[in-house]
Design brief:
The structure holds four protein chains of four kinds. Chain A contains eight helices and no strands. Chain A has helices at 21-56, 58-65, 70-96, 99-129, 140-146, 148-151, 156-189, 199-223. The chains are: A mainly alpha, B alpha+beta, C mainly alpha, D mainly alpha. Chains in contact: A-C, A-D, B-C, B-D, C-D.
Chain lengths: 226, 346, 540, 147
């Protein structure tokens, strides 16, 4: 069911170098999908580093991953999936022009993002407290005191090196997501989006879903290693 | 610091082929096999060049602009021709690939009865050791002279004629690459894992060894020498080159000086007070040293002994912990000799 | 064709807006293209001078006028600046930005503001890379191999961040071009009616988008290795340095196709326009561009045959590398076939296209030695490799870039250059280039290793010839610069279509107006249907 | 200007009318529920200690979740086919990159053993306590007992 704007005159928001609104929207979306492909390729480098560490030191990874708190990981996963859900509802609200529901969903998504970062903060401080950090900052006494099994492996800090890199880069993308979502919320408040011109909301939605997607793969690999 | 470049006459310059167009000396089994493939590819390339550039030049002359109202040929494509010039080169490519692949497989599977030699790459020095002749690293004087200054000696790989030799190589710091042009063999020497390389020398003589993986300031002077000897002389020469013990009547300090030259201490510790990578030995003995963790202690016998075996335990302030450990490389008697030598450096 | 009546009334994009600010915040793809052109040519000169320093130092075996450390820093910066600041952005960003919308009949690229942003990201990257000179320079080689790069004291982090940011500029440009080619084509410009320059830039943009993120993550891991040290590249901490080479070459081999594919695009245009002939095998050349782009992702292991990579992987990579040779051969043979039955005009661009065919064919054929497993064991990391990649990079991309510069100079600036000076520059570049790098093939097969500061005296004779050759090449390149600058100042006004090209960029004014076309052109015929071709002779 | 607008050679009737796919809310709720169930499944997989099989199964579950999000939340199911093609190309590149690198890391040690070279595998490396076989007396680098 297509929107009814069948007239020929050119809406204001179509940029001068585009001939039709459809051309501008599809260009924006193709550009976003290409950007998402680059994001996926960048994170794939880190996932390969993880698989390499797992191949080089399989038993160390199993023991070291026990240190990660599965409950916090689980909460974070549900929070992110819920925020993905509300984001999708937000995009749908923009499509049908339901202004109130768009703003509400955006706010919930941003709230979930903050919760996610909060849980991340708790996890990181627990690790720092136990000295479970990459090589340069790894504290063998604290780690050994924390759990004897860890100290028996020679390359334990390697796991925490890749753990902090992956979750750190993902966390950075969540923070960028918060910034971009707030910007879209401001524009939504200014009623800039109409059922014909909502591609900005959709692109931010796509970005947020990719951030959630990366966590969906990251969570089982880091937390639920068996 | 200027690269301590080993002057060529000290290094048995290779009997290079007279003109740059001739091939290198074919001094190993791989070299002989490889050169035929090398020449085959060259012939293939020359013929293709002649065909392509010849056609180009012919067209350039024949179809140059005659007048303003020239009419040009409407041909836009010719499927048969295009398929032809895709399939024919592919056939040649497959031939080269298979030929190269067979040789490569032969190059990377050493025979079981090969003589085992251990090579260690370290920042800017090769160390050649023979498990059969335990002792010091195998070195030789320039021009194969009987005796010369310890610091002038070049690491040398003595190889018997017509006998397979397998090199098991490892690096202690960064990636190096052991390359003997005359034998057409090369393998990266990677820290943290062993890499191996084998050949059978088929021609006597001296050949240079290069390091071909960039490894820092003196990458270009990290050279060594391969000397191919008849099977009969090989064992005796190696035994003499690698033996490292206190001759009768030789003072411990002089023995220490020989060890100082052979084990590559000169690469980082100078004798004239100028700091290179590590502290200079001049006036070191007995001086109180300020350590990196703030404490300070006198540089006495056991500090030097400990620094040789676990160099990173007590590092002097201002120096980075780069020194490789000599644990298992130096016997106690040799460490005492080195300490005597350092004492003598006032 | 679209009517030309009131093109001449409107001012050209050069004079439409005045003042430095109008250039710095422009979103006009033509102005951004020129800004890229000036920046990349500047860095080409900087890195070129570093190259002359290198060659002059190698004149004698021992030390001439710089120490080993300085020499290592000079060759590293020569490599890094040439690769990341000149050859990757030069053709796609400088010429691609200028020509893509014009050849497609569009008014601008899909995301003009993003285009300007990627130029400024490029400027930040350039500043950071040049800043490393001040902060202890860089001596790891442009390949940043660990564990040397993670342990050396030089400014590796500043350099890797600079290259990391240059990667973003490359991704955004590639993304912009892919969307433009898909969504902004003028009516009638179907996939088979696009000029081959567009096919080449489209294939390059695809590689830029899909390969550069891996470089981003590799360099980020290197920075983290130096600061926090994860240890996957450091053997002492449980990792393996060969992994870095896998990560690095997975980007860097597609990157060498980012460098050379645009050169192919330019040559296709030059040869057709100047020999007044339809391209021979349009579909074959277009598809081989995409085929090269695809295969380029499968062959990175041929840089690591002797690096401790397993022999089985070496065999697989060697076989696929041979597969890349076929589409490249098809291209070269199709270009030579295009000359058949033509009416060849020997203008400067055509001279450059002709010497391209020689230098690139030599570069391509010497690649056979390096993709064959056993000969690569002998030739890896020797001057043979240096000669091979210079024949493909300088002999391929740079000579095509110079040809393209002379070809579209009238369209960009509305002035003509001095034809005689251009031809002499082509001759000088040809002689200097072949003398410099031709001798290096023999140096390499004699076993002279790469990146050597001091060498055995046997190699001195060839090194001296090569050094003299490099001076001739430098003279030729400076002559190119003076010819173009003189053309800019004193050149007479160029006619609207000096070469008689029929692709869309020649249908608008010279230099083009601000938004390219008054009325969006309707294209009915292909980009190579020259008036001189007598189609009816094909009937009987 | 009422001149007709063409796009890629085809005349466009009403150029500024754009058609989007709007899926009903129920689709989103269903996908959300499915995602929660699958997350529970991921937990179950990890506690069901399938041994070596747990990684592939966990990856399978994660891929199912990912394809749900991509298809419905990101509307890829209703979009222009080229976006799907681009996304799959990047996945193929990732698989290629992983495949070759992991194959190589795996094969590096194996080949040495296969040729009975008796070269210690990667894990032992040099850091372990065995004596470096250079100048001192040589015994086969015994696998160190530390682990």
């Amino acid at each position: 069911m297509s929107s009814s704007n069948a007239s020929n005159e050119r809406p204001a928001w179509v940029a001068h170098h585009f001939d039709t609104a459809g051309q501008q929207v599809s260009s924006a979306k193709l550009g976003m999908w290409l950007f998402l492909a680059t994001e996926a390729l960048m994170f794939s480098g880190l996932f390969l580093a993880y698989f390499l560490i797992r191949k080089l030191h399989p038993d160390m990874v199993l023991v070291a991953s026990e240190e990660l708190n599965k409950a916090y990981g689980g909460v974070n996963t549900v929070v992110l999936i819920f925020s993905s859900f509300t984001m999708a509802l937000g995009v749908r609200a923009a499509q049908v022009g339901n202004q109130k529901s768009l703003e509400r969903n955006l706010m919930i998504t941003i709230a979930c993002a903050f919760i996610f970062m909060g849980v991340k903060y708790i996890e990181y401080s627990a690790k720092i407290h136990h000295g479970l950090l990459p090589w340069n900052f790894f504290d063998m006494e604290k780690a050994a005191h924390h759990s004897a099994a860890l100290a028996s492996f020679e390359y334990t800090p390697m796991f925490f090196g890749i753990y902090f890199t992956m979750t750190g880069l993902h966390g950075l993308h969540v923070v960028i997501g918060i910034g971009v979502l707030t910007w879209i919320l401001i524009r939504a408040r200014r009623r800039e989006f109409t059922p014909d011109n909502y591609v900005a909301v959709e692109n931010v939605g796509l970005y947020w879903h990719i951030v959630d997607l990366v966590w969906i793969f990251l969570f089982p690999l880091l937390y639920l290693v068996k | 610091m200027i690269a301590t470049f080993i002057p060529p006459d000290k290094l048995g310059t290779p009997p290079m082929s007279e003109s740059p167009w001739a091939l290198l000396p074919t001094a190993s089994n791989h070299a002989a096999a490889l050169d035929t493939l090398y020449v085959f590819i060259t012939i293939l390339c020359v013929i293709s060049m002649i065909l392509i550039i010849g056609a180009q030049l012919y067209f350039m002359v024949k179809y140059r602009k005659r007048s303003d109202n020239d009419r040009t040929n409407p041909i836009t494509h010719n499927t048969k021709l295009e398929i032809g010039w895709s399939v024919i080169p592919s056939l040649f490519l497959i031939v080269i690939f298979v030929w190269g692949e067979v040789q490569f497989m032969d190059m990377s599977s050493p025979p079981a009865n090969a003589i085992d030699v251990r090579i260690t790459g370290q920042k800017w020095q090769w160390t050649v050791a023979y498990p059969q002749f335990p002792g010091g690293p195998s070195l030789s004087c320039p021009g194969n002279a009987a005796d010369c200054e310890p610091t002038e000696k070049t690491p040398t790989l003595y190889v018997p004629l017509n006998e397979p030799v397998r090199l098991t190589m490892n690096s202690v710091d960064v990636i190096h690459s052991f390359y003997i042009p005359a034998f057409r063999v090369k393998k990266d020497v990677v820290p943290g894992r062993y890499s191996n390389l084998w050949f059978t020398a088929i021609e006597e003589g001296e050949f240079p060894v290069f390091c071909t993986e960039y490894c820092g300031d003196e990458h270009s002077s990290m050279l060594a020498k391969v000397i191919v000897l008849p099977k009969s002389e090989w064992a005796a020469t190696v035994k003499k080159a690698t033996e490292l013990k206190l001759e009768e009547g030789e003072t411990m300090a002089h023995y220490g000086e020989r060890l100082y030259g052979i084990n590559g201490c000169a690469a980082c510790h100078t004798l004239d007070g100028e700091t290179k990578v590590g502290p200079s030995f001049k006036g070191l003995y007995g001086r109180t040293e300020q350590l990196s963790d703030g404490s300070s202690l006198a540089a006495d016998d056991n500090y030097i002994r400990e620094s040789i075996l676990e160099p990173n335990a007590k590092v002097v302030a201002g120096y980075s912990p780069q020194m490789p450990s000599f644990q298992g490389k130096l016997k106690d008697e040799q460490i005492t000799a080195l300490i005597e030598f350092i004492k003598a450096q006032k | 064709m679209s009517n030309q009546t009131h093109d001449s009334v409107e001012p050209s994009y050069l004079v439409a807006k005045k003042g430095l600010l109008s250039w710095l915040i422009t979103v006009d793809h033509k102005r951004i293209g020129l800004m890229y052109l000036v920046a990349t040519l500047f860095f080409f000169m900087v890195a070129g001078l570093l190259a002359i320093l290198l060659r002059t130092e190698l004149f004698t075996p021992g030390q001439d006028f710089m120490s080993a450390q300085t020499y290592n820093q000079v060759f590293t910066l020569h490599g890094a600046i040439m690769v990341f600041l000149f050859i990757i952005p030069s053709v796609p960003a400088a010429m691609g930005n200028f020509l893509l919308p014009l050849m497609l009949g569009a008014r601008d690229v899909a995301f003009p503001k993003l285009n300007l942003l990627s130029f400024y990201i490029y400027c930040i990257a350039a500043v950071m890379l040049v800043l490393t000179l001040v902060m202890g320079s860089l001596d790891t080689g442009w390949t940043f191999y660990t564990p040397y790069s993670s342990t050396t004291g030089t400014a590796v982090i500043m350099a890797t961040l600079g290259v990391f940011i240059a990667g973003f500029s490359s991704i955004l440009t590639g993304l912009n071009f892919v969307v433009t080619v898909h969504k902004m084509r003028a009516p009638g410009v179907t996939w088979n009616r696009m000029p081959l320059m567009i096919w080449a830039i489209y294939a390059t943009a695809l590689i830029q988008v899909l390969a550069t993120p891996i470089l981003a993550i590799t360099l980020m891991l290197l920075c983290i290795e130096r600061v926090l040290s994860i240890g996957i590249f450091d053997p002492a901490l449980g990792g393996d340095p060969v992994l870095f080479q896998h990560f690095f070459w997975f980007y860097s081999h597609p990157a060498v196709y980012i460098m050379v594919l645009p050169g192919f695009g330019i040559v296709s245009e030059l040869i057709t326009v100047h020999s007044r002939k339809h391209i021979f095998g349009y579909r074959a050349i277009a598809l081989s561009s995409v085929a090269i782009a695809v295969i380029s992702f499968l062959v990175w292991g041929h840089h690591m045959f002797v690096s401790g990579q397993s022999e089985l992987a070496g065999v697989v990579f060697s076989f696929i590398t041979f597969a890349v040779a076929v589409p490249t051969a098809i291209k070269v043979l199709s270009w030579v076939a295009t000359l058949y039955g033509g009416s060849i005009r020997y203008t400067t661009p055509m001279w450059y296209a002709m010497i391209f065919l020689w230098t690139f064919t030599v570069g391509g054929l010497t690649g056979l030695y390096l993709s064959t497993l056993s000969t690569d064991v002998h030739l890896h990391d020797t001057y043979f490799v240096v000669a091979h990649f210079h024949y493909v990079m300088v002999g391929g991309t740079v000579i095509a870039f110079l040809g393209g510069l002379f070809h579209w100079f009238p369209k960009m600036f509305g002035r003509m250059y001095n034809e005689r000076a251009g031809a002499i520059s082509a001759l000088l570049v040809f002689i200097g280039f072949n003398v410099t790098f031709g001798t290096q093939f023999f140096l390499g097969h004699q076993g002279m290793p790469r990146r050597y500061y001091a060498y055995l005296p046997e190699y001195e004779y060839l090194h001296q010839i090569s050094t003299v050759g490099s001076w001739v090449l430098a003279a030729g390149l400076f002559l190119v610069l003076f010819t173009l600058l003189a053309g800019l100042k004193f050149g007479k006004h160029a006619p609207a279509n000096p070469w008689g090209g029929v692709s869309l960029e020649w249908h608008t004014a010279t230099p083009p107006i601000e938004h390219n076309f008054h009325h969006i052109p309707h294209v009915e015929s292909g980009p190579y249907d020259f008036p001189e071709i007598d189609w009816d002779s094909a009937k009987h | 200007m009422s001149e007709y607008v063409f796009l890629n050679g085809k005349r466009v009737e009403n150029p500024h009318e754009s058609h989007h796919h709007i899926s009903p809310v129920i689709v989103y709720v269903a996908v959300f529920a499915a995602l929660l169930v699958l997350t529970g499944l991921t937990y179950a997989v990890s506690f069901a200690n399938l041994g070596p099989g747990s990684l592939p199964v966990a990856m399978l579950v994660a891929t199912m979740k990912a394809s749900l999000v991509v298809a419905f939340f990101m509307h890829l199911a209703y979009e222009d086919r080229f976006y799907l093609f681009m996304f799959l190309t990047s996945l193929v590149l990732i698989a290629l990159f992983f495949g070759f690198v992991l194959f190589d890391v795996n094969a590096a040690g194996a080949l040495n053993d296969e040729q009975a070279v008796g070269v210690p595998r990667l894990e032992e490396g040099l850091k372990a306590s065995e004596t470096a076989p250079v100048a001192g007396e040589v015994e086969a680098p015994a696998p160190d007992a530390g682990h």
